[in-house]
Amino acid sequence: MAPRRRCPVCGSRQWHKEPSSGLITCNEGHVLQSYRNETREVTELGPHTLRKRTLKSNRKRKEKQSNADPKLYHGERARYHYFQCLQLILRMQVAALTRLWELPPEFEMVCRDIWTLHLELLPQPPPAEPLEAMHGEGDKKQTEQSSQVQVDTQPADISDGEEPEEEAKDSSDESSSSESDEDEDDAELAALMRENSSSSSSSDEDIEKQPKKNVSKKGVQGIRSSRRYDSPASNISVLVLACWTLRLPVIYMDFVRLIEAYELPYLDPVRLLPTSLAQHLTKHTAHALSPHHSPKPVYLHIQTSRLARLMYSTYEISTPEMNAPPILWRAVRGLRGTPTLYMLAKTLARVLSIPLTLHRSLASGFKRTEQGEHGWHRYDNAVPEVSLAATVIIVMKMVYGLDGEVRHPQEKDDPARTLPLLSDLLACIKDLDERSKMDEDAIFSAKSPMSVVDLSEPMLDKYLDFCERALLVREDKRTERHVMADFFPLHPAPAPPASKAGSESEPLRRLTAPEISLDAESQLLLSPAESYSIYNTQDILGTLPEQLELVIKRASSWAGLDEEYLCGVVERFERRLVRWWDGVKKKEREETSLSEVQ
């Protein structure tokens, strides 16, 4: 440090050293003369000097260890595996229906063809079979060895600056255009191999690293709407369409009842899958395969009608009409009707042009209506059995009124004389409702508030059998041979006797018909189809008469739909009937006027 002496120029004692030049200057900037600053450059360190020891190794960087289960499938391979499970569940469902309903072997063939068309018509068809499943174990090992050799032969990463300078210079001198082309080809092959390997199995960390796509609300809704078509309910729609193809008189509630009774595999089907398939399911895939509730008939009808419409528009495969006569008779018996009521309902259904197809565009000779006639074909896409039940209700309203007023036929040839009394008919409907509440399916359902303490010994045994069927897994689930024996048998076993059918197959009860009386009091009463009332379903404050409400409630429980939906179909068909009757009277007036002119 400079001595504390005065500056010969200004006399200041404040000195400082400039860092750039190393000169000593005072506050005024006068340079101190006769001052020498010497520095020593040390080129070699002594033996006692501390120095940091560095070691160089050619070890490769360790890849991050993934905690994901290698048995679980993700991505496209998981989706392909999901459809494999759906197909096996469909096999189980076909085998169950064939056993319960004694269906012919052609039913399985029809289901197989419709299932193939269903996969082709999905908004997002199933992906191709994974590469690992296409090759054998030898090919897989060879692919892994080739990929390992390729990784070993690739040059090490020189971005870390850990290679010697001589090796870096040699590698830069020996590089050429041909080697750069080979490196590009190797990079492309490595990228392709990474894509193929990522399709087999990927970890959760890799999924999180992928950039999130900006999906709008419409895109999310489109994804959700496309996913519902490959849900487990699509298997039931395939079964329904196969039954329609074979002209089987089934309704949607037949499948729903079997599902709720665990006779048809649908609820919690993962326990029925073999271990070789179930071990690859993630929790999300298993959740998608296991619905919590049985499907509603309206949802099944939407799925089935869409599939039938796409089959016709894409491949021109037409689905036959519903086998209406047996189903109409089932609807009549569901309301405790008679053959006379069946004939009247059949005539009215022909007048109203009740649609008998899954979709109105599949009807032969269908013509698009004008804008002012849009109400005529409304509810043409309704559930077919609901349309038939609504027709039966309209006939009952025309005959009995169901509004608290007594109707009495005045003419001798009136078909209403062959129908039973309204009081007896309503008593039978009430008795049927009471017995349906004590039915085995109703007691064991999830909606029933029953207690095991209240069950009798025979009913308790049935409940234990139901629990065993609904909760326990198969005895030979871990064996692979039972899959081939159950779903691909060499000689089909004889089918057991069919299960009990619905209440509509019970024998007819003898009901009393109204007596023929032509006195003055009977002539003052209303006749059938006189003073007909149409109730507006949009009137939320209105109430239905007690008699009509009882019939509506019974019909809705038979069809498995809400009472509001059934009332809407009844109202629409009633207004269609009024328009038809106005057209008939108008045509009669025109013919009368033409005859008078002539």
Automatic annotation (TrEMBL):
Q: What is its main location?
A: nucleus
**Composition skew (Basic and acidic residues), residue ranges:** 132-143
- In Gene Ontology terms, what is a biological process of this protein? nucleolar large rRNA transcription by RNA polymerase I
- Region of interest (Disordered), residue spans: 126-228
Domain (Rrn7/TAF1B C-terminal cyclin) spans 299-470
Coiled-coil residues are none
UniProt feature, compositional bias: Polar residues: 144-153
> Compositional bias (Acidic residues) spans?
159-168, 179-188
**Record carries keyword Transmembrane helix:** no
Give compartment(s).
Nucleus, Nucleolus
This protein's GO cellular component annotations are: RNA polymerase I core factor complex
Q: Does the keyword DNA-binding apply?
A: yes
Q: Which UniProt keywords apply?
A: DNA-binding, Metal-binding, Nucleus, Transcription, Transcription regulation, Zinc, Zinc-finger
GO molecular function annotations of the record: RNA polymerase I core promoter sequence-specific DNA binding; zinc ion binding
Q: Which residues form the Rrn7/TAF1B N-terminal cyclin domain?
A: 86-275
**Family, per entry:** Belongs to the RRN7/TAF1B family.
Stated name of the protein: RRN7-type domain-containing protein
Q: Which organism is it from?
A: Sparassis crispa
Q: Lineage of the native species? A: Eukaryota, Fungi, Dikarya, Basidiomycota, Agaricomycotina
